Amino acid sequence: MIRIYRETGIDKNLIQRLRYFGNKILKYLNIKENVVIVLVDDKKIINLNKKFFNKNTPTNVISFEIKENNLLGEIYISIDTAIKEAEEWGVTLFFELIYLIIHGILHLIGYNDLTLKDEKLMEDKEIEIVKALNLNRFRYENKNKKIKT
User: Fold this and answer.
1) How far is the C-alpha of 18 from the C-alpha of 15, rounded, in Å?
2) Spacing of C-alpha 11 from chain mean position
3) Which of 39, 103, 122, 147 registers the highest number of CB atoms within 10 A of its CB?
C-alpha cells in the first residue's frame, strides 16, 4: 500500500490520485510491502541529498530501501523540482509525479541508473509500466490548470 505524506502544500485531490495509481503500480509489480512517499520542497531534498549522497543540489526523487515491518522503503519527491521538470518536459504535474513514483519504486526493488546500460533497463521498465497502466493519458490532461503548491 502507498502512504503519502506532504511537507509542502499540494492539492488533496492530486494526493488521492497519486495514491490510487501508486497502488496500481505496486500491484502491477507484484509488490506486497508498503511504500511511503514524502512530498517535500527543494530545501528538504537538498538536505537529504547532501547528507546521504554528498551533493549540495536539488534532485527530483530519492529512494531509501528499508525492508522492515512490511515496509519496502521511503521515496522523497521534491515538488519544486517536479514542477520545474513538468514545465520543461511539457507534461502535467500529475504525470511527472507518477513517473517519479515509478522511478522511486524501481529503485526500491533493485533497479539503478548508474551506468548507461542500467539507465536504459530502468527507462524501459518505466515506459512498460506507463503503457501497461495507460498512464500516458494523463501526460497532457489539464496542462494549463494551475496547481496549488
Assistant:
1) 5
2) 16
3) 39
CB 72, CB 33: distance < 8 Å = yes
Domain count, the chain: 1
Task: Provide the b/e sequence for 101-125 (b: ≥16 CB within 10 Å).
Answer: bbbbbbbbeebeeeeeeeeeebeeb
pLDDT in tens, the chain (149 residues): 999 998 777 788 889 999 999 999 999 999 999 999 999 999 999 999 999 999 999 999 999 999 889 999 999 999 999 999 999 999 999 999 999 999 999 999 999 988 999 999 999 999 999 999 988 777 876 544 443 33
In a domain, 31, yes or no: yes
User: Which cell is 1 given?
Assistant: 500500500
Q: Is residue 6 part of a domain?
A: yes
Name the pTM for this structure: 0.89
